[in-house]
Design goal:
The chain is of the alpha+beta class and 105 residues long. The protein has 2 helices and 5 strands, in the order βαββββα. The protein has a 5-stranded antiparallel sheet. 10% of the residues are buried. Keywords: Coiled coil, Plasmid.
């Protein structure tokens, strides 16, 4: 089989799944057969026919492992941001407590 005859498969992740929460990894990576590529994305095979997966909405990977690594980096970054917000809130809380304790002096 030549390279031209091989079916191209990509692993797709919908970006907005990672906006407000951490999704279950099993459900976030879709394996899709590529029908053709367009300037805006890929036309891919789905159970009911074909559908266009836009570059603006999806991340595309050549392997499931690469897709999961992308997911892990996004989750790690999200957790780090939450941690920083919690630390900032705690620091603000401590300053407010200290300031309220100094008011009576």
């Amino acid at each position: 089989m030549t390279d031209e005859n091989q079916i191209k498969v990509l692993f797709c992740i919908l970006r907005r799944r990672f906006v407000d929460y951490v999704p279950e990894f099993e459900n976030c990576v879709e394996e899709r057969e590529v029908i053709n590529e367009t300037p805006k994305g890929y036309r891919m095979s789905v159970s009911y026919g074909t559908s266009v997966y836009l570059h603006a909405d999806y991340e595309f990977f050549e392997s499931r492992q690469a897709a999961y690594q992308w997911c892990a980096r996004r989750v790690t970054a999200s957790i780090e941001k939450m941690k920083q917000k919690m630390q900032a809130a705690e620091a603000t809380k401590i300053k407010l407590i200290e300031a309220s304790g100094n008011c009576g002096e």
